[in-house]
Amino acid sequence: MWRKNLKLSMRPSLRTLLTHKLISLKLDIASRHSRGIVGVNAQYYEQNSIKVVTLGIIELNKKHTGVNLSAEIESILEDFSLTKSQIYSVTSDNGRNIIKSIEIINEDSDASADDDEEELETQVNVCSMASLKCAAHTLQLAVKDFLKFGM
After folding, report:
1. Residue 45 is part of which domain span?
2. How many CA atoms, within 13 angstroms, populate the side-chain half-sphere of residue 75?
3. How many domains does the chain have?
4. Smallest Cα–Cα separation from 24: which of 45, 3, 48, 47?
5. What pTM value is reported for the model?
6. Which coarse location class applies to the principal site listed for this UniProt protein (predicted)?
């Protein structure tokens, strides 16, 4: 109970802190013993240093599909009043489901831009989030494949 209260008490200050900041999201999913958890961190630049805050660690009670993950990510963005135009990039492992979730979120952004096409201001502010693969995870997979298959 105290954790939930702590989370709720910290949310307004984090919301204020992240207002008008350009943010890079970091996503990771862990599955153990038939339980799945997604972690979402926000990284931003402030006072000559890079800051990282955790926006959520959520247990996934549904299949880890791109559609379900995109709904969870959008829910977290809403909780902190973050707009899609604030998200510069999303870094994750090479999981197809996370990559697909970002594609879905970008498609939603494109659809909303099409609805307001006559407004130039809306068109200028809508941008796509770049989906980046974690270099360390990619290197780990390459080394694993090398050890498995050799040269």
Report:
1. 2-149
2. 11
3. 1
4. 45
5. 0.72
6. nucleus
